[in-house]
Protein: NADH:ubiquinone reductase (non-electrogenic)
Amino acid sequence: MGNSRKRVLIIGGGFGGLFCARRLGGVDVDVTLLDRAAGHLFQPLLYQCATGTLGFGQISRPLREEFERHRNVTTLLGDAIDLDPELRRVTARRPDETTFTLDYDVLVVAAGMQQSYFGKEHFAEWAPGMKTLDDALNIRQRVFTAFEIAETLPPGPERDGWLTFAVAGGGPTGVELAGQIREMATRTLAHEFHSIEPKEARVLLFDGGERVLKAFCSELGEKATKSLQKLGVELHMGVHVTDVNRDGVTVTPKAGGPDEQYAARTVLWTAGVEAVPFARHLAKVLGVEADRSGRIAVGPDLSIDGRPEIFVIGDLAGRENLPGVAENAMQGGLHVASCVRRELAGKPRRPFRYRDLGSAAYIARRQALLQVGPVKLAGFFGWLAWGFIHIAFLTGVRNRVSTVTTWLTTIARENRGHRAFMLGATGLPEQRYTWTTWDALTPPPPESPPDGNDR
Ligand SMILES: Cc1cc2nc3c(=O)[nH]c(=O)nc-3n(C[C@H](O)[C@H](O)[C@H](O)COP(=O)(O)OP(=O)(O)OC[C@H]3O[C@@H](n4cnc5c(N)ncnc54)[C@H](O)[C@@H]3O)c2cc1C
Structure:
């Protein structure tokens, strides 16, 4: 790795890091792409992995395979934990807890966000979030196990609790998950059980706003509301989930009034995001401003003020009007690569200009929303457009082909081919067979207000 060529270190192989590294492939620089996971994850289809439609291999691609042909790009597995801006050195931790260092001339921080519980981290034990492959597999385990447990119980409140699913957060991820669970219960699982009726499973969706999908115009939001209601999702708007425990959730109406309890043995959390720990560390070490969720203030070219060699892109970039969507991360990655290339050619950097290419959200079979400028699509045409967009951006031709094939099979046969889930091995305490005896170990830290963005 050590020669006179410029060393570009990219932290994070998500959308931002991937697009930056790709554009620097074959350029006269040495690129190191460091990620704490070994693959690029296509987060927009995580919920399909969580609910058994897609396998995890279909929504992730090994970074090593992705960059096999780019001789100047090295991919490394490691968790960035420390930055020395004077030495221009990052320390990373291997999965065995040992560490190694990486020196850079240009640092690109594309480490993304993680789920936020707004200071109530103990909720996570009962309510997994939805940001990583582990989250998706955890949710898959809980959702399918809930039906299995219910099947073994006599009718009554305990069984009802297992057949009730609470989803916190009415943004795209919450809507997608809630819709999928109902669809799974009413189609895929409908005839597979003898004691329970899966279609009687209740799915409760909670959000503090007046309606779901606030990022979409009210016309599309209304359509989404109707589709969800038709699907049987119970919408509870204008409430905050203020407690989560083994037996369910407590919600507090925003307009005042008494708290309400809902018994639900499966709770899923999609209510907010915050910067990953390395980003917090970076902000502290560099003394730069970060917003409430930890997004780092960047200048017009996405570099940090006074540190032109450090760029922050994607979800972590804290600049007005930059949304937490894949398109922003991809464009940011391409922009930084262009800055590096221009500097090699002795040209000045250009400011970053984000081009809004719209938003899409899946509701259910044959129903999705697409909003691109004045174009608003819902229902079947929205669904078709949603499908094309997701396939176009999915990483790897093999994943694209197999995802389309899986979707066609799912539509034709109403089945889900990726329902397998792991259960812990006996005798290993860290791989428990059950998650329901967990004791919250840490006392709840002080509450901080939600930021309302589920991605
Ligand atoms: C469930 C879900 C659905 C979504 N749906 C859509 C959608 O339909 N359309 C859309 O436009 N956007 C969607 N998004 C948002 C979109 O996925 C993000 O905006 C995008 O992934 C941000 O890209 P990024 O490169 O900034 O970060 P990410 O893609 O999150 O990548 C960050 C990478 O950094 C790595 N990393 C983190 N910390 C470290 C560390 N310390 N050291 C090394 N590596 C580290 C992570 O492993 C990860 O690979 C969705 C997000 C989620 C969670």
In short: The radius of gyration is 22 Å. The chain has a mean pLDDT of 92. Residues 121-271 form a domain with the FAD/NAD(P)-binding domain fold (CATH 3.50.50.100).
